[in-house]
Hints:
Elements: E1 4-10, E2 15-21, E3 24-29, H1 39-50, E4 54-60, E5 65-71, H2 87-90, E6 102-108, E7 112-119, H3 124-132, E8 136-142, H4 143-154, E9 160-166, E10 169-176, E11 179-187, H5 188-193, H6 196-207, E12 211-215, H7 225-228, E13 231-235, H8 241-248, H9 250-255, H10 265-268, H11 270-323, H12 333-345, H13 360-370, E14 377-385, E15 388-395, H14 398-410, E16 413-417, E17 421-422, E18 428-436
Parallel strand pairs: 1-4, 4-8, 9-12, 12-13
Antiparallel strand pairs: 1-2, 2-3, 5-7, 6-7, 9-10, 10-11, 14-15, 15-18, 16-18, 17-18
Amino acid sequence: xxxxxxxxxxxxxxxxxxxxxxxxxxxxxxxxxxQSDSDEAIADWIEEEAGAKLDxxxxxxxxxxxxVTIPLDEFGEARGRIRSASLEYLIEEHLPWSAxxxxxxxxxxxxxxxxxxxxxxxxxxxxxxxxxxxxxxxxIVPSAILAFDGLMQLTSVPAGSCVVGLxxxxxxxxxxxxxxESWKFWPRSRAxxxxxxxxxCEIAFLHALQSLTIDARLPxxxxxAEAAGLSLSPIEYEACDDELIWKGTQRLWRKRTHPxxxxxxxxxxxxxVDATLQSSKIIFASVIAVLVCLCCGLLWKSxxxxxxxxDVEDQQVELYQQTFPDTPIPLGISSRFESQHRAIVxxxxxAGTARFPEPVLIGLKHVLSVHNTExxxxxxxxxxxxxxxxxxCEFRNRSDASEMLKRLNDSGLAMGASPLQKLDDRxxxxxxxxxxxxxxxx
Length: 442
C-alpha cells in the first residue's frame, strides 16, 4: 500500500505542512506557540494533520541554507584531480562553519562547483524524531529550489538566469536547462528596502548579464530595466508558492532522491544504513533466486538423465531377451553384454576396434587364380589367417618371382616379397606376404 506524502516547509518562525488531497494542494500552518518549538511537538502536529507512516520531504528555508558557487579556476592545475567526494570539504572555507558542523551536497559543472550546506545540529534531532514515529524522510531540499523545479515543469523557462518572487523574498537562479549553477537570495525585507533598479544592478554586476527572465509577480522591477541596462523577459504563471513546491517534488517522489538533497551524513542517520541494508537484501534475494533457478535446472537435468538411463536399460533388457531367449536376465546386464561381446570378438583390441575375420576362401581364390603353368613355380606352404596371407614358394629365376608378385597384386591382393634366397643353381626361394585389399607388407 502506498504511503501518504507530505512536505514539511520551514518558514522564518515556524513550519507549514503541504499535502495533496482531492486534487488540491492543502497547506496547514504550525501554531506559533511556545510548545511548538520542540521536535516532539512538531512530530505530533505532523501526525495530527497528515496521519501516520508518511513519506516526508523537508523543505528548508533560504535563511537556514547556504549556497556556494566556486569557479574551478580557483583550483588551478588541480581542478582535473578533484574528486566529487572531496568537494564538500573544499567549500568549507566559504562557509561560517567548520566541516564537522554542516552537511553539504555539490554538483560540478564545466567551469564551477555549486554547493548547498545546512547546519546539521539544527536538524538532526527533528529528523530522528520524525523517523522514530515511523515516517520516512525522502530528501531535504531548500523550498526555493523545489519551487524552481516546479516552475520548470509548469512553464517554459529559457536557459540562463531568472528571478523568482516567493513569500520570503526574491530568488535569483542561474541554470542550464534546469540544472542549477548558482542561487542567490534577497529577503523580502531587503527587497522592499532596495528599489528595483538597485536589485537589478546588483544582479547584473554579480553575473555580468545582458538579459534576464523575471517573475511577472515582481512588477516593481520592470520599470527599472533600462536603468540597469538589462533586457527583461517576464514569466507568467498561476500558482502559489506551495503549489510550485508540490509540483517540484513529483519527480522526487518517483526517484526517491534529489540531486541537491542534503539528507547525507548525520542527517541521514539510520536511513543511510537502511538504504544500504535494503540494497543488500535485494542483492541477496537476487543471488538466492539465481541459486534456486540453478538447482531447479540441475534437478531437471538429473531427471532427464535418469529417464534416459532407464530407457537404455529397458532397451538392453529387450535386446538381451531377443539375443538369449532361454537365459534369465542378469542383474548386471551391461557387464554381461560386454563379456559376451569379448567372447565373440576375442581379446584383440577394444570393442570399438574389433573386426570380423576375413573369409579364408577369398584369399585362397586370389592365390590360385594366378598359379598356372606359364610361370614355373612351386608353392610349398600357403597360410591365410584373418586376411593375412603368407606363401612360401620357389622359382627358377628372378623374373618368374617378379611376374608372380605382379599377378598377385593385380588380382586384388596387396603383396610384397622378402629377399630372394638362392637354393641351388636352378632354384631361388622367397616368402610372399600381404593381405586381401590392404597395403603390402614389406
